Amino acid sequence: MKQTLSDRLFSIFAYVVLILFTLFCILPFLLMVIGSFTEESELIVNGYTLFPKAFSIAAYKALLHSDALYNGYGITLIITVVGTVAALCISAMLAYSLANKRNVLQTPFLLFCYLPMLFSGGIIPFYIVVSQWLHLQNTIWALILPLLCQPFLVFLLVSFFRTVPEELEEAARIDGANEMRVFFQIILPISKPILASVGLFYALNYWNDWYMGLMFIDNEKLFPLQLILRRMVSNMEAAKNLIPASAAISTVAPTYGVRMATTVLTIGPIILLYPMLQKYFVKGLTVGAVKG
Amino acid sequence: MPNVRKRGAGYKLQQIARNPFLYGMAVPGLLFFLIFSYFPIYGILIAFKNYDFSKGITGSDWVGFRNFNYFFTSDDFWTILRNTLLLNVLFIVFTTLAAVLIALMFNEIRNKYFKRISQSLIFLPYFMSWIVIGMLVQSFLGGESPPVNAWIQHLGFAPVNWMFESALWPWILTIIRVWQGAGYLSIIFLAAITGISEDLYEAARIDGASKLQIMLRITLPLLVPTISIMTLLSVGRIFNGDFAMIYAIIGDNSLLYPATDVIDTFVFRSMRQLHDFGMSSAVGLFQSVMGLIFVIIANAVTRKMSKESALF
Predict the structure, then answer these.
(1) What is the mean pLDDT of residues A101-108?
(2) Residue B241 has what pLDDT?
(3) What is the per-residue pLDDT for B1?
(4) Is A268 exposed, middle or buried (0-12, 13-18, 19+ CB in 10 A)?
(5) Which residues make beta-bridge pairs with B50?
(6) Are both B156 and B278 inside the same structural domain?
(7) Contact with chain A for residue B179, Cβ under 8 A
(8) For the packed helices A225-234 and A67-99, what is the interaxial angle rounded to 10 degrees?
(9) Among A206, A223, A224, A225, which residue's Cα sits nearest to residue A268?
(10) What positions does the domain ABC transmembrane type-1 occupy (chain B) (predicted)?
(11) B309 in contact with A at a CB cutoff of 8 Å?
């Protein structure tokens, strides 16, 4: 179809808006990555530039010697893997039970899981339950258990399971499969896409969490990555402390650079996996938005 | 299935006994909600007590509404209430506007590769933790000579001491919020636009409508229900949910509290620093109740507009 001048101008306008917004979204990341590879002295004098004159990997070299960072990575990996697997199992089982028409307790069960989305006790009672009743403070469980079940993600699974045709289950049951076999051999295999997106959300939750750590962890050996990073935000000195004195490489301690480099290492796995995972995230988000 | 009588406790018990696995599957999840959501609701009692660690929740002495009185009569009350509402309104308005604009513009673009790459990139900030974002903010606006000031001075303006100017922070936080959330919201709007019937566009094109007219007369009006629902959902959450963002960015910088302190950060601080559990949980309860009221109102309005989209 022939385009008029005004249509063409309008298309150009659309491109300009999107290019500007895209730049706005990624420039901070670019500057941070480049900053992490810039010589400390130049960072202090010129601030961030897209094209630094003095390239340096001192910050990363310094971080190689940091036990705290290795430790943080270890803790974060453990809670992400253990937490995601456990959360996915618990949520999928709960959602299957909630979605099943034969469940005579369906309504009370659903209400039970719905209410916490609407009303909560607030953080003080939550804090007391986790620390005084369950005695989880300064254990890795404080980082895993409180995030095991997200009502929103459970309902994402429920709405998926509801779309599974009943005939499928019935046929299996007539063939003599019990409930357990139906769930593991029929339901789970066809739910892979939704399990993938819900799993990714859980994984991201665990990877990015620092709130549980902030409330319940004082022992530095149990600090997840995000908490190590948080310390650096609130306290410049923390960046220096991350590097053992014996590893001093240059005369200028790369404090800015270390902060940038730690951030890059913290978000690295997300950014690297992102292109592959993005379609699952988008799927999960749009499904969730249609029926929150 | 024969149509048997489906009522009565006896029938239910029989059903449960017949399918132990079906009900057993729900147990871990239900236990989770019981422990981490329902036990804390019981803990609300603390708001009416002079909480003493050694005596526990049941053992502590009742003080009636004293904890609430402290809070409602303090100057902090109006400040944090105003901040909570004002910041949320700014966030909702600007994120929605930006997201609608972006979604409409994406709809005009035919280049698949540009579309895909641009979408991936604007979506990225949504996956960063607030700590990482706090770090970014700190590295642009913090320190002795914030890097942003270097740029500002290049443009011929006077440098700004960002960490002292509380009046600027509602806007800074809004910009950060748009940066983080508009891309994600635009994807949802774009999904709604994709659902608009192709016939309408064709009819408009045959009638000779320009792209701009199509956008203003067809796409935008048909997007309005989705926009309203997403907005109502955020209005329902207006009383909570910003702790992670604001605490990660502002932290303990008390110079900025006048404009940035919200209910969540106030509660957290009075718990961690003042150890005033009674008042903190009174504030928390106030927040939960107000939140519940807002959710119910928002839901009722949503229900009026579109039954499908209501939460309950």
Answers:
(1) 86
(2) 63
(3) 46
(4) exposed
(5) B61
(6) yes
(7) yes
(8) 120
(9) A225
(10) 81-298
(11) yes
The answer to whether the CB atoms of A97 and B135 lie below 8 A apart is no
Location of structure tokens 């994402």? A156
Q: pTM here?
A: 0.88
Query: pLDDT-based confidence at A1, cuts 50/70/90?
Result: low
What distance in Å separates the CA atoms of residue A259 and residue A241, rounded to the nearest whole number? Answer: 11
Read off the pLDDT of residues A8-31 as tens digits, 9 standing for 90 and up: 898 999 999 999 999 999 999 998
Residues B30 and B90 in one domain: no
pLDDT in tens, A205-241: 999 999 999 999 999 899 999 999 888 777 766 666 6
**What's residue A292's pLDDT?**
36
Distance separating alpha carbons of residues A78 and A289, to the nearest angstrom: 30
Of chain B, the end-to-end C-alpha distance in Å amounts to: 30
Whether A120 sits inside 8 A of B288 (CB atoms) is: yes
- Residue B62 domain-assigned? no
CATH number of the domain enclosing B143: 1.10.3720.10
Q: Assess if residue B49 is contained within a domain.
A: no
Q: Do B178 and B301 belong to one domain? A: yes
Beta strands in B120-245 (DSSP E): none
Counting one residue from chain A and one from chain B, the pairs whose CB atoms sit within 8 A come to 276
Structural domain containing residue B26: 1-36
Q: What are phi and psi of A217, to 5 degrees?
A: -115, 120
Counting the structural domains of chain B, the total is 2
- Nearest C-alpha of chain B: how many angstroms from A89? 9
Nearest CB neighbour to A6, from listed B6, B210, B287? B210
Best A185, A233, A234, A255 residue to mutate vs chain B (most B CBs within 10 Å): A233
- Residue B55 belongs to a domain: no
Per-residue pLDDT at A120: 84
Residues B286 and B154 in one domain: yes
- Average pLDDT (A95-123) is 87
Average pLDDT per 10 consecutive residues for chain B, totaling 312 residues: 60 80 91 94 88 81 85 86 92 95 92 89 91 89 78 84 89 95 91 87 87 88 85 79 84 86 88 83 89 86 74 66
What ipTM does the predicted assembly reach? Answer: 0.87
Chain A CB contacts of B6 under 8 Å are: 104
Contact A179 B19 (CB under 8 A): yes
Residue A184's alpha-carbon distances to A93, A94, A196, A225, A253, in angstroms, are: 10, 14, 16, 35, 55
**Contacts made by residues B299-303, CB under 8 angstroms, sequence distance 24+:** B299/B232, B299/B236, B301/B232, B302/B228, B302/B229, B302/B232, B302/B233
- The answer to whether residues B21 and B88 belong to one domain is no
Best of B132, B220, B254 to disrupt the A interface (most A CBs within 10 Å) is: B132
